């Protein structure tokens, strides 16, 4: 299979074309992966981060977790937090495999998790380079533990 990248300043929108002499499961998998990535990027672009009534640009990879508080959704980064214009169930659909629901009121960015342990208060989640912590409910704890240990 050959892969080629061409640039054309006469087109207004990027386009990916797959040319083949016959259909195969490998091509269908490639098409599905590309389609899923385009959909994910489009949905992530819909997430609006706000701080003190100003729109902010935040890379979702920098988000430690999303949580609800007083009927609002907040995104927490290492040193700050932002209000988000989406519901948790929407974020759960949009964000992809690195993010996982950990309670009725929270979604965590799994690659940002440094430690996950049981404590007197519950299943505590700690993050790299941050003092922030969060708790996973018993209902979601096994799924998070499995994902942290290399499962899906």
From TrEMBL:
Domain HTH LytTR-type: 47-150
Listed Gene3D superfamilies: LytTr DNA-binding domain (2.40.50.1020)
Gene Ontology molecular function: DNA binding; phosphorelay response regulator activity
SMART domains according to UniProt: LytTR
Pfam families, alphabetized: LytTR
PANTHER family: TRANSCRIPTIONAL REGULATOR (PTHR37299:SF4), TRANSCRIPTIONAL REGULATOR-RELATED (PTHR37299)
Protein name: HTH LytTR-type domain-containing protein
